[in-house]
Design goal:
Blueprint (H helix, E strand, L loop, with lengths): L1 H38 L3 H19 L5 H22 L5 H14 L2 H20 L14 H53 L3 E8 L8 E7 L1 H7 L3 H4 L14 H12 L4 E8 L5 E12 L5 E10 L1 H15 L9 H14 L6 E10 L1 H8 L1 H18 L5 E6 L2 E10 L2 H20 L2 E3 L2 E3 L2 E9 L6 H17 L5 E3 L2 H22 L4 E8 L5 E11 L5 E2 L1 H11 L2 H21 L6 E4 L2 H4 L4 H12 L6 E5 L8 H12 L4 E7 L7 H5 L4 E4 L1 H5 L5 H17 L2 E5 L4 H9 L4 E3 L7 E2 H12 L1
Parallel strand pairs: 11-12, 14-16, 16-17, 17-18, 18-19, 19-20, 20-21
Antiparallel strand pairs: 1-2, 1-5, 3-4, 4-5, 6-8, 6-11, 7-8, 9-10, 13-14, 13-22, 14-15
Helix pairs in contact: 1-2, 1-6, 2-3, 3-4, 3-5, 4-5, 4-6, 5-6, 12-13, 13-14, 16-17, 18-20
Length: 752
């Protein structure tokens, strides 16, 4: 329909111009013709010229009339003029008759052209029979019909060739116009679709670069999405290269890959960092495809880009969560292990020594518990910043959990001694940096660091092996007093393995009830047995024992101390009941660890153990350490008062070696103090220890507290203590710890 409309419009334009030309030429030629005809008194010619010019003028003037009506009027004028001229001038005027079918083909189409062709041919035939039309054909018999037929057929042939040529040409033109109209419609639709796509589209033509260089590109089209995203107006980018938006942070390798693909006329796909008109960077996923002409020559490139900032942000967030610590922004354990692995993999190609440091913040838990997690988190962030500031670009600072940091120092030196010295210097800088006060919300907080160091590479070791070595060295630094540095040694590994073996064996011993309690008596100044302490023993198959000083710390580190303490409490209640039934009711002291005492159900467990064996509460004395009051002081005091109300008595074990604050003595429901063996060992010969013992005895007497001295091994020690009013003595001078049955037999002998 669009093609037909276009052809009709074209015919209308042709007809309008034709009328103007005919009218102009007709006036120019008709006036002289009319004057000549008038001079010769050929009035019919004058009338015909005037009538024709007037009629054509009228047709031109009546532009509002239907197109086909006006064309037929014009063709009638041409027909009448041709007939008139044939009648008046002769056969030469046949050319006028040829005008009608040719114009009909041009202006109306095939069918009107064939109709007018037939009309004019018949007209010439019949006019050829008229006696006024002098048709003469050389060599033809003088027969009007034959002459008219020959002239008409020749006219028909020539007129048909011209008419059909015009008609076929117009028909082909009409079909081409239809195809062109459809193509234009498709192009308009495509252009509209491209313009409205959310993806950015650029179309560039290939231009030959001077000097035989690689072909360049020149943008000839961009869509609306490109204008929105880039900030450039379409006119600002026309003629520029497809890659004009790249900037300093764009990946040069990706650009080179894309440029190489374009130079070889190959499609390319890449993720590029583009820059908009304002200079802001944004990520795009670009696809570039070449176009070639019918001869295979590359002519154009089309680039389709879509913004992927959100996807890149999500990928960065996922990467950050996977490889970086959320709190400090430092690499996490996963990324650290990966970097250690890469360093170990590259070690055979180099000859340098690196170092791994395990850093633990000392007493961080105290700050975290006392001031809350917000303050603790702030301290961890500040500590991470201080560590990062000390490191080179090639080094790695990671947080692997809690208050634990790890530093990987790459390529320190080519020999072990130099690498160890360099690592020690860095470790000392770290220790000093952490030791500086941290300012958090206007408050100063002090912290220190224990640092373990191991060197790498080592044959056959993996990342986790090195991390374990640094961890072991760090615990050595803690054991040596904290705020220090320790290098890993093979002996440390052996110690750790022994400790792990003992930990597993202790758990099995608890399950198998293989531990036992021994009893050591306490006597007063008159030699009477006033109490006894229950002490744990771990017998072995060969008859030996593992000392409590070895397995108790292992139990505390592993968490077995709570199970161990509950078992000891039940054993104490059982022993007290057996002594009472044997007629030897002796108060029994049993140690309670801070971890056991802080259990929410500790008081309930004590009551359950007493009820299980029918033991009176007064038969138990619970020995606590001074360190119990460092954390959760109020809760600990509340629990002590709850148990004291039941009749349980409390003793402070190893008094003078721990917290050493006298303020708690008046707030705690205490029954006695126990002087640690280390003070008794050198009493009365060492003036300082002797003074401490005297001070403890004097203070306890004023506070109304009973005092028991541990580790009494000589009579001289006993005499000194009794001379200073010590209430109870416990040690090898009187008896070694023994099984309960042996203790009953000892009591019988001792009292006899």
């Amino acid at each position: 329909m669009a093609a037909s409309n276009d052809l009709a419009h074209w015919r209308g334009q042709i007809f309008s111009r034709l009328l103007q030309v005919v009218l102009l030429l007709g006036i120019i030629t008709a006036i002289p013709s009319a004057l000549l005809a008038a001079r010769e008194a050929i009035w019919s010619i004058v009338a015909l010229d005037v009538l024709a010019i007037g009629w054509v003028g009228l047709i031109w003037h009546l532009r509002a009339m239907p197109y086909r009506w006006r064309v037929w009027q014009f063709l009638i004028v041409a027909y009448l003029v041709g007939v008139g001229l044939l009648l008046k001038i002769g056969p030469v005027s046949q050319i006028y008759m040829m005008l009608m079918p040719v114009l009909a083909a041009l202006l109306l189409g095939m069918r009107p052209a064939l109709s007018t062709l037939a009309l004019t041919s018949l007209t010439i035939f019949f006019l050829g029979l008229h006696p006024d039309v002098a048709l003469h054909v050389q060599g033809v018999p003088d027969s009007p019909v034959l002459r008219a037929l020959i002239v008409a057929l020749n006219f028909l042939f020539i007129a048909a060739v011209l008419t059909l040529s015009c008609a076929f040409l117009l028909r082909h033109l009409e079909r081409s116009s239809q195809a062109l109209s459809q193509l234009n419609a498709n192009l308009r639709l495509t252009a509209t679709a491209l313009a409205r796509l959310n993806d950015m589209v650029m179309l560039a033509e290939v231009t030959d670069a001077p000097g035989g260089a690689a072909p360049a590109t020149r943008i000839i089209f961009v869509n609306d999405a490109f204008e929105r995203s880039s900030g450039y107006a379409r006119a600002e980018v026309l003629g520029r290269s497809l890659l004009f938006q790249q900037g300093p942070a764009t990946d040069a390798g990706e650009l080179a890959r894309v440029a190489a693909a374009m130079a070889n006329a190959q499609p390319a796909r890449a993720e590029l960092l583009n820059y908009n008109k304002a200079g802001k960077a944004y990520w795009v996923e670009a696809e570039l495809a070449p176009f070639t002409d019918a001869d295979g020559k590359q002519t154009h490139w089309v680039a389709v880009e879509r913004e992927i900032d959100e996807r890149k942000k999500s990928e960065a967030d996922i990467h950050r969560l996977a490889f970086y610590d959320v709190l400090t922004g430092l690499p996490n354990r996963r990324l650290l292990m990966d970097r250690i692995g890469h360093l170990l993999a590259a070690a055979p190609r180099g000859n340098t020594i690196s170092a791994l440091m395990f850093i633990d913040l000392d007493h961080f838990k105290h700050i975290n518990d006392a001031r809350g997690h917000a303050t603790g988190d702030a301290l961890l962030r500040l500590a991470g910043e201080r560590l990062a500031q000390l490191m080179r670009k090639a080094d790695t600072v990671a947080r692997i959990g809690g208050d634990e940091f790890v530093v990987l120092l790459a390529h320190l030196a080519e020999d072990l001694d130099s690498a160890a010295r360099a690592a020690a210097q860095v470790a000392e800088k770290i220790r000093a940096a952490i030791a500086r006060d941290f300012d958090i919300d206007g408050q100063s907080y002090h912290c220190s660091a224990s640092i373990g160091v191991t060197l790498l590479p080592k044959a056959g070791q993996q990342a986790h092996d090195l991390l374990r070595e640094a961890d072991i060295a760090m615990y050595r630094a803690k054991a040596e007093g904290r705020n220090g540095i320790a290098f890993f040694e093979a002996a440390m590994q052996a110690g750790v393995e022994r400790r792990l073996t003992l930990e597993r064996a202790l758990a099995r011993a608890l399950d198998a009830h293989a531990l036992c309690m021994h009893v050591q008596p306490q006597v007063d100044r008159h030699g009477r047995v006033t109490g006894a302490e229950l002490l744990m023993r771990w017998p072995q198959a060969d008859g030996s024992h593992i000392a409590p000083g070895i397995f108790i710390p292992i139990a505390e580190e592993s968490g077995l101390i709570v199970r161990l303490g509950h078992w000891a409490l039940r054993e104490a209640c059982r022993a007290a009941s057996l002594l009472a039934r044997a007629g030897q009711p002796v108060a029994l002291s049993v140690n309670v660890s801070p971890a056991q005492f802080r259990q929410p159900d500790f008081a309930a467990r004590v009551q359950a153990a007493l009820a299980e064996h029918g033991t009176p509460a007064g038969a138990l004395i619970l020995e606590l350490t001074e360190g119990l009051l460092i954390d959760q002081r109020d809760a600990s005091l509340a629990r002590m008062r709850e148990l004291a109300a039941l009749g349980i008595r409390f003793s402070i074990d190893d008094f003078g070696t721990g917290y050493s604050s006298l303020a708690y003595l008046t707030s705690m429901p205490l029954y006695e103090l126990k002087i640690d063996k280390r003070f008794i060992d050198d009493t009365p010969h060492d003036a300082r220890d002797t003074a401490i013992v005297q001070a403890i005895l004097a203070m306890a007497r004023h506070l109304g507290l009973r005092v028991v001295a541990e580790g009494v091994e000589t009579q001289e020690q006993a005499d000194f203590l009794l001379a200073h009013d010590c209430d109870g003595l416990q040690g090898y001078l009187y008896a070694r710890p023994m099984p309960l049955d042996d203790f009953l037999a000892w009591l019988a002998r001792y009292q006899a």
